[in-house]
TrEMBL record:
Keywords: Endonuclease, Exonuclease, Hydrolase, Membrane, Nuclease, Transmembrane, Transmembrane helix. Gene3D superfamilies: Endonuclease/exonuclease/phosphatase (3.60.10.10). It holds the Pfam family Exo_endo_phos. This is Endonuclease/exonuclease/phosphatase family protein. InterPro entries: Endo/exonu/phosph_ase_sf, Endo/exonuclease/phosphatase. SUPFAM superfamilies: DNase I-like. The chain crosses the membrane at residues 62-83, 95-116, 123-141. It comes from the Bacteria. Residues 173-383 form the Endonuclease/exonuclease/phosphatase domain.
């Protein structure tokens, strides 16, 4: 009996279905043995990470490439934005003026860098790009929001066929004629079509002035003043009414002669002194001279006995600190106050490169409002002509 019970017990507890020995297949209380459980875990641990590493290896090269691009573009946008806040003294450091000339475009560079940073999960770079975009928006927004408006009388006065030389309004135009290479006939056509009453030209030559006269400038603007510091290239002013108190160089500039003449408005009610401006270009070897020529213009703020309109090639955008210092709290950049957007005037001869810098300006004094800013391409020149309507009070 004892022997049979042992056999039955062995059949019930000692073996599992399938004929395997209980001591090899089951542990205490029917759980799997310790060794089997370890082998099962090892299989799971090994298999899961293999799939994860394979997935990451497929993604990481692209993420790394996007990250490198984000860092490169982010560095460009960050340094460009930082250059905008440099004081005037540091703006004269080599190549800084050229970098700042691209300032509005760093907003687009920062936007692309921001998208790449988000895609590559570079959160710090993304945060810095947001700051850059916000700064650029703050600086450029005024060019798209008018801070002053022309009186309705200006629009009516300029809608007539011929200019009225005794009203309080005038259409003005400035253009750098690129060492006299600009199309003189195109200049005269622009004067005629736009009813220009005061014209400022830079980099004129004797031959260009001769061609301008042959093209008929005297029919529309019979009075002029042209001067040159080196006898080769000069700057000039043309007007529909006579100039008073003309001088070769109003600014006593180290860059070039900047001729000036006074024009009467409102049949003697007001007088405005126009100056044709051309500062030193910011190129290697001339960085300090560039800043000096802008500082010399800044000295004009102290001349309180006259009201000025400066027109010409300033070789600086509003983003350049020396240009803003020249404006001070007295003068106003007409493009910024008109709120018609960025007036990009240079270069026009580098196709397919578009115009990217607004270095030509119409700058007005207190009591003078400007509007209707436009640019016009002049064949043969590397600058677009800049036009504005001014109202004198």
């Amino acid at each position: 009996m004892i022997r049979e019970s042992a056999k039955r017990g062995a059949g019930r507890f000692g073996r599992q279905p399938g004929g395997s020995s209980g001591t090899k297949l089951t542990g205490k209380y029917g759980t799997p043995p310790r060794g089997v459980r370890k082998r099962t875990k090892a299989v799971k641990v090994v298999n899961a990470p293999k799939a994860g590493r394979s997935s990451r290896s497929r993604r990481s090269p692209w993420r790394a490439i996007l990250g490198v691009l984000a860092l490169a573009l982010g560095a460009a946008a960050g340094l460009g934005t930082l250059a905008r806040v440099l004081p005037g003294e540091l703006m004269a450091l080599p190549y800084v003026p050229i970098v700042v000339a691209f300032e509005p475009w760093f907003a687009l560079v920062a936007l692309v860098a921001l998208l790449l940073s988000l895609a590559s999960r570079r959160w710090l770079t993304a945060l810095i790009m947001i700051v850059c975009i916000a700064a650029q928006a703050w600086w450029q927004y005024p060019f798209f929001s008018p801070s002053s408006a022309l009186p309705s009388g200006a629009t009516r006065a300029l809608s007539t066929a011929n200019p009225n030389p005794i009203d309080m309004y005038a259409r003005v135009m400035t253009c750098n004629v690129y060492k006299g290479a600009a199309d003189a006939e195109a200049i005269v056509e622009a004067v005629r079509d736009e009813r220009v009453e005061v014209l400022a030209l830079q980099e004129t030559t004797a031959d260009f002035v001769s061609r301008l006269e042959k093209a008929g400038i005297g029919k529309y603007l019979p009075y002029s003043k042209v001067s040159s510091s080196d006898g080769v290239y000069g700057n000039g002013l043309w007007s529909v009414t006579p100039f008073a108190d003309t001088v070769d160089d109003e600014v006593d500039s180290s860059a070039s002669f900047m001729p000036a003449g006074t024009v009467t408005f409102g049949d003697g009610k007001a007088q405005v002194r126009f100056v044709s401006v051309h500062t030193t270009a910011p190129v290697p070897g001339y960085w300090s001279l560039w800043r000096k020529s802008l500082d010399e213009l800044g000295m004009m703020r102290s001349r309180a006995d006259r009201r000025y309109v400066f027109m010409g090639d300033f070789n600086a955008t509003y983003d350049h600190a020396p240009f803003r210092e020249f404006l001070g709290d007295r003068f106003t950049d007409a493009a910024r106050s008109a709120g018609r957007g960025l007036t990009l005037t240079w270069p026009t001869d580098k196709s397919p490169v578009p115009r990217f810098a607004g270095i030509d300006h119409v700058v007005v004094d207190r009591g003078i409002v400007a509007g209707r800013m436009e640019t016009k391409v002049i064949p043969g020149s590397d600058h677009a002509a800049l036009l504005a309507t001014i109202a004198v009070s």
